[in-house]
Write a structure and sequence with these properties.
Largest sheet: none
Number of helices: 13
Oligomer: single chain
């Protein structure tokens, strides 16, 4: 059935309202980042700064080691994304192709584990990292990020594996390919959109994560960017609004750039025409 004009107008109106709801915090953040102090204290704030300035950015870099913290976040996020994908891809393949009770139990546990709050996990993770002597270290933080990202990565990639036609793997088996060769040469290339999407999820999750980094990293030179952003808030809870907005704006750019670069791989289909009907 064709959608009528009133219904279509309502759909686009709802979509526009949702986009405005999502974009408002970011646009307001950008506006504050370029405003001088006198405009930040104005009783009649405006969207567009009347006298835009870069002083907030200069002050942010002068007050806090943003570049070093961003490097720590980048290393942790990239390492977590790569390790999570390397572990999740073969595991998801087994879960999707093996219809055993154990595979179903593992899949159910993966779904249930997503409901666990951070506070419930931090104490056992802290004790494990302490025994491994990885407290206050970026590798220890990467290990935590991998553990946290794996359940969703497994669930996500298992769905992509199920979408791959089994006939392709059967044809590879007839040609003499083993399970590992089939996964590497046949299934993995077709999973590229899912692998990219999973890596993006793991990267953004690790890049934006705050709680684990706050608890596990104590040395200032090892802290990640979200933790360093809290240093712009004084002991009495008063925020240095201009530099904080400037630093927060810079912290959001990597996630946006990464998503813009690979979004075509996420939405692009790679299975069209793979198997004749």
């Amino acid at each position: 059935m064709r959608t009528g004009t009133p219904a279509r107008v309502g759909q686009y109106t709802a979509l526009l309202a949702y986009l405005v709801f999502l974009a408002f915090p970011f646009l307001w953040l950008v506006s504050i980042a370029f405003k001088p102090p006198r405009e930040l204290g104005s009783l009649h704030p405006t969207w567009i700064p009347k006298d835009p300035t870069l002083d907030n950015f200069r002050q942010a870099f002068d007050e806090q080691p943003l570049l070093h913290a961003a490097l720590n976040s980048l290393l942790a996020a990239l390492a977590a994304a790569v390790v999570a994908v390397l572990i999740a891809t073969p595991t998801a393949y087994v879960l999707a192709r093996r219809r055993t009770r154990l595979a179903k139990a593992v899949t159910g546990w993966v779904v249930v584990s997503q409901a666990f709050p951070f506070v419930l996990l931090i104490i056992p993770l802290f004790l494990v990292l302490k025994n491994l002597r990885l407290i206050n270290s970026v590798p220890g933080l990467v290990l935590v990020y991998v553990v946290w990202a794996l359940p969703f990565a497994l669930w996500m990639l298992a769905g992509y594996v199920r979408a791959v036609p089994p006939e392709l793997e059967e044809a590879a088996a007839v040609d003499g390919a083993g399970r590992v060769r089939t996964l590497v040469s046949v299934t993995a290339p077709l999973l590229a959109p899912g692998i990219v999407a999973t890596a993006l999820f793991a990267f953004i999750t690790a890049w934006n994560e705050f709680f684990f980094a706050l608890v596990l990293l104590k040395t200032p030179e090892k802290q990640t960017l979200p933790v360093v952003l809290t240093h712009f808030i004084g002991a009495e809870g008063v925020a240095d609004l201009g530099p904080l907005a400037a630093a927060a704006f810079l912290a959001t750019l990597p996630s946006l750039v990464v998503f813009a670069l690979i979004q075509r791989r996420i939405t692009g289909g790679m299975l069209t025409g793979a198997v004749k009907s």
